[in-house]
Amino acid sequence: MASVIQSVPDSARVARKESSKYPGALVVVEGIDGSGKSTQLYLLKRWLEIGGYRIHFTEWNSSPLVKSATRRGKQRKLLTPTTFSLLHAADFADRCERQILPLLHSGYLVLADRYIYTAFARDAARGCSPHWLRNLYSFAPIPDVTFYFRAPLDVAVNRIVAGRPKLKYYEAGMDLGISLDRAESFRIFQDRILNNYDQMIETDKFVLMDGTIPVNRLQKLMRQIVGERVNMEQFAPKKTKKK
Amino acid sequence: MTDSLPESPAGSNGQPPKPAKKRAGKARVKRNEKPADSASASASRFYGTPMPGVTTEELSGSLIVIEGTDGSGRSTQISLLTEWLESEGFAVQTMGLRRSFLVGEDIDALLAENAVTRMTLALMYGTDFFDQLERRILPALRSGLIVLADRYIFTLIARSAVRGISRDYLHGLYEMALRPDLTFWLSVRPEIAFDREFKKSHSISYWESGRDLSLSNDLFQSFIRYQSMVQKEFEYLSKRHDFVEIDGERSVAEVNAALRKRIAQQLGIRGTHYHPSNALAHLWR
Question: Whole-prediction pTM value?
Fold first, then answer.
């Protein structure tokens, strides 16, 4: 099995250096579907919003510019592993260049629900070359904190399957022809993604979060880690600064 | 590593890439296997690792690329070459930029809006390219067709490079592309290209004059400066990728004769005599 762990291309190193130049900060959550990452990021966002912090929340939804292409490709099952990956990269590039980067440069704390590691784990599970993927996303700034929410495969899959009437074609990895049964295909696909995530824990400095811990305890831990890793003072409302 | 795309102009050793060799490797690659497994079998036809799911069965057709700026006569020559090749008994498939079913029209819409940023545009063009490669070019080559490409990855690399995207990045992006059997570059001076384009449409397009780069408020100046920048990228690519450079300022008939001569040599066609049919006679000016 090809490893997701690859030497970072030169172009990515340049981006990494430049990323420390902006005054903002980037906190992202990663993990397979059903790992609890979105719930935790939502709670973190609420905490910061209520506190009046200068934040922006972004998620891996289609940007309006690329939406029609993605929808057509998915509905008509036109996407190959390569074009699936490229279309999502185009989508991400649009959000990165028009939202994330300008906000980081203007001093926002940006919270991202899924980031480039989603593409590394998912597209490599489809057979894309990990080295090619690393290069493809090398324009993206490296996060200040990357939380990796990890739940056992069964726990995560059951959370998703129980709550969703029908798994979508690409979501279940049906394009890979692993199994004709959608739930079974989804399970195997998620297992591959999970393995790919696990391989990035050290190389990409993930903060490992146990997705089976009760929600409120996990959130307390997450807030504590954000407080340690990010200088929250710079995003705080002005009145708290005066004190 | 002469087989791979160059990493940067500085890294160029001036050696032309080795000619693509056809391999009859029949080893089928299952769609869910890692691409690394198939890399060695088909490496000679690709710059780097082929795309996942692409089988390495023999590609018996030929990929012939015509590169050149707008106004270099590309489309005219492709129409004429198609007719000539068909008269010689070769089946022809064409490809070009923004012609994929997947995203071709979406790119048109993005260009019309001017809201798109350089990286998004580069990746949409990449999607467009690989969709055509997988769905049009590779099937045609497997069936033994001649694919005439009205521009290829070189235009895409040059355009993005002049917009400041690193060449390393762009070469990495297109490392899964198929290596052409022949690449022609119809070179024309920017001034000539301007005249031809202006005669054709009585205006100069926003993108062809590089207006997104804010080079000059004067459209003519902007066009010349932008096209000169693109041309510089092409000069570098030409050396690395063994382009056959043809003076695009010569007459249509002369350029066509030069193209036919080299293609005939590649495909083993004996006679290169050709005169356009009535349907295409208007191109033969």
Answer: 0.85
